[in-house]
């Protein structure tokens, strides 16, 4: 799909909706994951079309503690809908970069950032070999859902923390989260889509590397 087609696809298959735990933020969100997944014809689910529990918790935490990102350069890994990136921008970050390998995600991020009145730079492609482009703060919402992904993401986050970046994660007790590598900062009860999580509420923790 070309860029205009990506934007049109997101608009045609989502509805502008407040995020349950972060009602200050509006997202173009879908209702049914499987139907939308079939339409995208992608290997990965449409992560960009839903406010996942880990992202909601991390976004809430940033808005409640804006000093974590205020006047700082922020990198949001696997941004999905852009929820966490948008929250960082609303909290006063100097600049925010949202990275994702899915072009539909980047189209969604641009739409969602615009409707929330913030500037978010989108960066395509796999950036896991980078240093998060020198960001002061590195954010990741709900990235430990798979063992293979965890093995790729963890070294990236570890390097960022080792060079002095503040690394914050949002995670709803996914099985592959390496808890011994992080410190819990806050815990939230997050409303989630029943069709995605088989429950209406999940507990999610914000962790610091």
UniProtKB/TrEMBL annotation:
It comes from the Bacteria. The keyword Ribonucleoprotein applies. It holds the Pfam family PrmA. GO terms for molecular function: protein-lysine N-methyltransferase activity. One of its GO terms (cellular component) is ribosome. SUPFAM superfamilies: S-adenosyl-L-methionine-dependent methyltransferases. Gene3D superfamilies: Vaccinia Virus protein VP39. Keywords: Methyltransferase, Ribonucleoprotein, Ribosomal protein, Transferase. GO terms for biological process: methylation. PANTHER family: ELECTRON TRANSFER FLAVOPROTEIN BETA SUBUNIT LYSINE METHYLTRANSFERASE. This is 50S ribosomal protein L11 methyltransferase. It comes from Lentzea aerocolonigenes.
């Amino acid at each position: 799909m070309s860029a205009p087609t990506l934007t049109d696809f997101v608009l045609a298959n989502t509805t502008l909706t407040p995020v349950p735990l972060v009602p200050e933020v509006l997202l173009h969100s879908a209702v049914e994951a499987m139907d939308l997944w079939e339409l995208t014809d992608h290997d990965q689910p449409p992560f960009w079309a839903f406010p996942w529990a880990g992202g909601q918790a991390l976004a809430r935490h940033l808005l409640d503690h804006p000093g974590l990102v205020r006047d700082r350069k922020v990198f949001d890994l696997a941004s999905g809908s852009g929820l966490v990136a948008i929250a960082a921008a609303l909290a006063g970050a100097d600049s925010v970069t949202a990275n994702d390998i899915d072009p539909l995600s980047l189209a969604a991020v641009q739409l969602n950032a615009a409707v929330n009145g913030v500037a978010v730079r989108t960066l395509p492609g796999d950036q896991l070999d980078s240093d998060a482009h020198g960001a002061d703060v590195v954010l990741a919402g709900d990235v430990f859902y798979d063992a293979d992904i965890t093995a790729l993401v963890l070294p990236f986050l570890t390097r960022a923390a080792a060079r002095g970046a503040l690394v914050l994660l949002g995670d709803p007790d996914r099985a592959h989260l390496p808890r011994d590598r992080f410190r819990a900062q806050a815990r939230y009860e997050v409303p989630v889509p029943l069709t995605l999580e088989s429950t209406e509420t999940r507990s999610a923790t914000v962790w610091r590397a």
